[in-house]
Each structure stands twice: as structure tokens, then as C-alpha cells.
Amino acid sequence: MIEVNQLGKSFGDLVVFRDINLHIRSREIVVLVGPSGSGKSTLLRCLNGLEEPDAGSIRIGDAAWDASMDAASKKQAIRHIRTLTGMVFQSFNLFPHMTALENVIMAPTIVKKMHQKQAVEIGESLLAKVGLLNKKNEYPSRLSGGQQQRVAIARALAMQPQMMLFDEPTSALDPELTGEVLSVMKQLAAEGMTMIVVTHEMKFAREAANRVIFMSDGKIQEEGAPEQFFVQPQTERARKFLRQIEGTPETE
Question: What is its main location (predicted)?
């Protein structure tokens, strides 16, 4: 499903990550964890073409991008990759002048040239899926943060992606609203959606992930099944991270 080889990204003299290699199977749920600044969110943005890597290659389904391509080929590859991936961000990024339903159906009608009636049918079914069909005519300002993020998930699903990328989708929410969003994500996981999730929600990682990847200092430090990573991490850097996340005092 996803093959990433020797991927690297820098901003000027700042190396965000280097030599990233990933293989993610169809229907797999992979959670990326690690300290802030480790390159997790930038990696997601590179997978969706929002940032251009400096080195390496990406293959998602039948779409392939390589740093050695010419500019025109890269642009075409990114356009193809974006038709296969849906992305949900930390901020909801809903259009404030559009209702929930209008936000959801905009991309299918404009990008895919879908007929309005069909788009509305799909949009309503997706809002029902995230528990918000009764809010379809509400504007974002009249929705809670959790509701707005669920609309954002429905909007990403409206393009019928093969995989979903989540960049800390609950970081702006309080605990009660976080639960609403994580519940929808668990439902998608149970239905077999391929997912890569950057999150600090360790409970979600334990319960929903097939695999946890730990990034630090711009590298993948280790990866494994949740029961292995959380119970018996292999590196001292991962052990330190988990102690800090769980609020366990450092030991000398």
C-alpha cells in the first residue's frame, strides 16, 4: 500500500528527518509517536504532497513520487497521490461561510465533478457515519470543536480515499470532545481503513494500532506492536519518552 524509501526533508540548515523507510500494508493502522519536533507531522505532510521531500521516494498504491523526477512529473505524481489520501489536521480548517454539508460536498463536486445530487447523498451518509446528520445545515461557528473535527473527517472521506492521514486530530480538544473524535477513528479502523495517525493519545495507540512507530531526532528509533512498544520498548530514548508521557519520575 505505502512504500517510503530513504526519505529526507530539511528546512534550510534544519534537518527535520532523514533516511526514513516505511512499509505500510493495506488496512493497517500505524500510529506515529514521539517528542515534539521529531518530524512526525512533516512526514505526514510529505506523504500527502503538502511538503516536498529533498530526497527519497514515495509510493502509495499505483502513485509514485521520486526526488529525481523532473518538476512536471513530480506535480503529476502529487496530484495522483492526493486522490488516494485523505488528511485531517490539528485545526479543523472548515470554511466558515459553508454549512457542515456544504463543507463535505465541496471537494467531490469541484475536484471530481460529481453531480450535486450524488454528492449530497454521499455527504449526508458520511455525516450520519460521524453522528452529525442532524447538524448538516449548521455553520462551523455553531458546532463544538469535536463536532467540527468530525465534519473534517467526513470531508476527507468524501473524496473516497484509499488511506487516511491524521495529524494530531485531537490536540485542540478537551478530553470529552477528544473521545468523540477517537470513537469515529476507531470505527474507521474497525471498518478496515488504512490509517497513519500522529497522536499523543497513547490509549488510542494501545487499542487501535497494529503498529507503533517511535520517532525522535528526525529518525525512526523503533517500531513494533503496541504490546511490545508500551510494555518493553527496545531503546532508552523510547523508555524516556514513555516515562514522560505517563508522568513517571525519572530514575537515576
Answer: membrane
